[in-house]
Amino acid sequence: MSDKPEKFIDENGLRLDGRRVDEIRPMTVEMGVLSRADGSCYLEWGNNKVLAAVYGPRELHPRRLQRPSEALVRYRYNMAAFSVEDRIRPGPSRRSTEISKVSGEAFEPVVMKQFYPGAVIDVFAEVLQADAGTRTAAINAATLALVDAGIPMKGLVASCAVGKVDGQLVLDLNKPEDNYGDADLPIAMTEDGEITLLQMDGNLTADEIAKGIEMVRKGCEQIFAIQKEALLSKFGTADEEEILKEAELQAEVATSEDESEDVEVISETVSEAEIQAEDDELEAEDEDEDIELQDEAEAFTDDEVGDASDEAEDLFGEDVSEFEITENAESEDDSSSEPEGAESDEDEGEKNE
Amino acid sequence: MSEAISRLKKDYLFNLALKGQREDGRGFDEVRDLIVETNVIDKAEGSAKVLLGDTQVLVGIKLQVGSPFADSADKGVIITSMELNPIASPNFEAGPPREKAIEMARVVDRGIRESGAIDLNKLCITEGEEVWIVFIDVHVLNDSGNLLDAASLGAIAALMTATIPGEREGRGGDVKLPIREMPVSLSFVDIGGELVIDATNNEESVSDLRLTIVTNQDGSICAMQKSGPGTLSEENFLRSVEKSREIGAQIRGEYLLNI
Description:
Oligomer: heterodimer
Strand order of the largest sheet of chain A: 1-2-3-5-4
CATH class of the largest domain in chain A: Alpha Beta
Helix content of chain B: 25-40%
Number of domains of chain B: 1
CATH architecture of chain B: 2-Layer Sandwich
Helix content of chain A: 40-55%
CATH superfamily of chain B: GHMP Kinase, N-terminal domain
CATH topology of chain B: Ribosomal Protein S5, domain 2
Number of strands of chain B: 12
CATH topology of the largest domain in chain A: Ribosomal Protein S5, domain 2
Number of strands of chain A: 9
Number of domains of chain A: 2
CATH architecture of the largest domain in chain A: 2-Layer Sandwich
Radius of gyration of chain B: 19 Å
Largest interface: A-B, 61 and 66 residues
Largest sheet of chain B: 6 strands, mixed
Number of helices of chain B: 5
Strand content of chain B: 25-35%
Structural class of chain B: alpha+beta
């Protein structure tokens, strides 16, 4: 059964969905969509629909998983049973376990875990509709959910994949490109370009990988812009235009209260002064924050790095009890026709998307 | 339970790295002594034991007749399992595979699958009904670091010696498992900003990043995985790609081509 298209890129250099090779699919985000969660974000990317929620920092149970000097970042990637063409069995699979692990690790470098020793920051990413690139979509949504939850972070994380079809590198694979393409290289990076997630399957030359990374970098820049726009529209303080409008309103009120021209002039002057003062205040705040961040960064260098990795190992050795139970149950009552109830490691989820 | 490695040990390894040295005297790009023995288990359809320094891994291949996946009705099936057996380290506990073991098994699987090492089209018996299922089982005997590369090398070596048990299963005669590629996996860990190849368990325990790159005979790359909470710079990444191609070719020439 092969629905493989004959050509992925037409003579005009356009892909099956009309995009150029270096173009990402349209992305829309909405923050604060779940009232019970501390932070949340709904994201659509092409035909992907994902929902990310953050709970925490909150107390971590069981206590033996707690880290004495920092919070644990726990990430759970989960696909809805109906999110793909052929229904997938609900609950964790080997594929989702791996994605959860590496996606959580993609956020560890930016989340300022040291502020919440012993606590957990839970990130839940639910894929409601899957159409290639769900792990990258989930990461893009999770970044905004973390900010929405007020978790202190050193910066944002954006994620995007590059792949190869018809011998050409293409950014942000669509479904046919993902299913029948020659390679898939999902990457997540911080705003300063450090790679926090990197996986790859298929076939690429070293040159293609180097070129692919640059394409991903450009893709991530666009995603950062989308993320920042969403953040500004939700949390951005009144911009200059609004402040001016406010000032005009005040002036009008003042005028209507007292018709004397002198007063109007004075009130205008006052509002201008106010604007200036407000601007200064904002700047000062920014500076304060910068200094704080720097201090933190300096305080938690070398020495802490090793600790963290020790603890990480502790954690990865143990942090599975809950999942294991489900997994056991799953394999015991496994009635599917799959051979021996064993799961193939082929990226079935993605394939069925 | 994780081995509690003292701060002193950590400082020691990081300081060594600063001077361009490692605890066992190797260079950053130097792989430990490697021994690959094949056909070590007669009952298995194929097998290999890999000794990578003190790390010991045994890989067995079993084949069974089963039904194919719906979306690849004319192809055989690969199932890779890896258990971090408590015999291999004080840090491992009995029980079903956890996150870490699942990730490693899937990276081993990805290397074999994506390189096209096994010609899965030739494993179809009756389309849509019966195909050969190839079980790759990694049995970890001693974890002295870099299980992933030892397991990957063991997997391809074992597959290269494997036979399809047609006679036993009443599906024709015995034939060699069709192998057409020899992927080699190489892992690097970050020690104080330096990426070192083939890490020992001590090095792994102080590192927050592992990068695995699997290369083919033609020098192309078929699988990669970054693991751990650390970050990776593009420069370090691309340099590792080059190193893995170069060292991968050496290992392939020395340990796989003669099987």
